[in-house]
């Protein structure tokens, strides 16, 4: 995604900033005062996922939302850092360097699994971890074989995450997916 083009009317744009930190160029949104709440979106999503809850939480908390590496407006600096272990270490280092160690982590889908993994990497664990539709279990049956294989193949392509994010950001593409579900 391109900030100059796609970010013009991005939700909560006024709270966006970019931070270069080991090895990525991160897009963060930050607002409010109080205990720090870190919002982690799921695979192929962006800070857009939190557009409605972000300002509500910011009334009582210091809210930080970020785009994961290679997704949304965060530019991935190293392809091998897009797995859960690399992302966990990179996000932990980012929030530490920015003085944003979270008191609470809220993760959606794979963001919940990432938050759980971050418990090993943060200098101080959060007081709470909340998972919304948390993707914590392995898939069963054929999906258990195919989905991890597809994820590994996509991880080999440095453009996969940004392409999926771009495609899912297209109303026609999302409409086609929804239309195909019956």
Averaged pLDDT, please?
A: 86
- Major sheet description: 6 strands, mixed
N-to-C span = 29 Å
In total, the number of domains comes to 1
Give the beta-strand count: 6
Helix and strand succession? HEEEHEHEHEHHH
- Can you identify the CATH superfamily? Alpha/Beta hydrolase fold, catalytic domain
What is the molecular shape?
Answer: globular
> Briefly, what CATH class?
Alpha Beta
CATH topology: Rossmann fold
Q: Can you list the strand order of the major beta sheet?
A: 1-2-4-3-5-6
Query: Strand portion, in percent?
Result: 15-25%
Residues in helices, as a percent range: 25-40%
Radius of gyration: 16 Å
At CATH's second level, what is the architecture? Answer: 3-Layer(aba) Sandwich
Number of helices, counting only DSSP H or I runs of 4 residues or more: 7
Structural class: alpha/beta
Can you describe this structure?
With 182 residues, the chain is of the alpha/beta class. The protein has a single domain (3-179), classed as Alpha/Beta hydrolase fold, catalytic domain (Rossmann fold, 3-Layer(aba) Sandwich). 36% of the residues lie in helices and 19% in strands. A 6-stranded mixed beta sheet has the order 1-2-4-3-5-6. Helix 4 (110-118) links the parallel strand 5 and strand 6 (128-132). The radius of gyration is 16 Å and the shape is globular. This is Putative magnesium chelatase accessory protein. Pfam families: Abhydrolase_1. Residues 35-159 form the AB hydrolase-1 domain.
């Amino acid at each position: 995604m391109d900030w100059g083009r796609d970010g013009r009317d991005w939700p909560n744009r006024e709270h966006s900033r970019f931070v270069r930190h080991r090895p990525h160029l991160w897009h963060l949104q930050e607002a409010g005062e109080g205990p720090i709440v870190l919002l982690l979106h799921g695979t192929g999503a962006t800070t857009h996922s939190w557009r409605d809850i972000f300002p509500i939480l910011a009334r009582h908390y210091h809210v930080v939302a970020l785009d994961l590496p290679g997704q949304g407006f965060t530019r991935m600096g190293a392809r091998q850092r897009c797995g859960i272990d690399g992302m966990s270490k990179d996000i932990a280092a980012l929030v530490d360097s920015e003085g944003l160690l979270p008191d609470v982590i809220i993760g959606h889908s794979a963001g919940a699994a990432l938050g759980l993994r971050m418990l090993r990497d943060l200098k101080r664990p959060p007081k709470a971890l909340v998972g919304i539709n948390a993707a914590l279990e392995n898939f069963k049956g054929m999906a258990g074989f195919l989905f991890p294989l597809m994820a590994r193949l996509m991880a080999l392509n440095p453009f996969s995450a940004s392409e999926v994010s771009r495609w899912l950001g297209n109303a026609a593409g999302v409409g086609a997916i929804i239309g195909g579900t019956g």
